[in-house]
Design a protein that fits this description.
The protein is built from three helices and no strands. It is rod-shaped, with a radius of gyration of 38 Å.
């Protein structure tokens, strides 16, 4: 190793390492920040966010329908009145002593 001359300056190790650490932090921030800015402007990202919003709305709608079906199932398992209403509406069932009048609508 050559002997340093009197006018050559060798910075202390702590200053060298702190400068390296500072540059590493700046590079890490740039790596984390820049792609996020680029992705915000990408039209594919905008399209994907729109699709996610549509899917979220569809998910909420299906969850509401599922909750309604669960309520119907519980009512049909436990409530005699619900069973009667469903049998009359869906199956056209009536009690033996009831009179059924069917009215036709106007002809088209």
């Amino acid at each position: 190793m050559p002997k340093p001359l009197a006018d050559m300056h060798v910075p202390p190790a702590i200053r060298r390492w702190s400068a390296r650490f500072g540059l590493a932090v700046i590079v890490a921030i740039a790596i984390g920040y820049l792609p996020a800015q680029v992705l915000k402007k990408d039209p594919r990202t905008v399209k994907l966010h729109a699709q996610l919003d549509e899917l979220d709305a569809e998910t909420r709608e299906l969850a509401a329908k599922n909750a309604a079906l669960v309520r119907d199932i519980n009512a049909l398992r436990n409530d005699v009145g619900a069973i009667e209403v469903r049998a009359r509406a869906d199956l056209g069932m009536v009690y033996p002593d009831e009179i059924v009048l069917r009215v036709k609508g106007p002809a088209p």
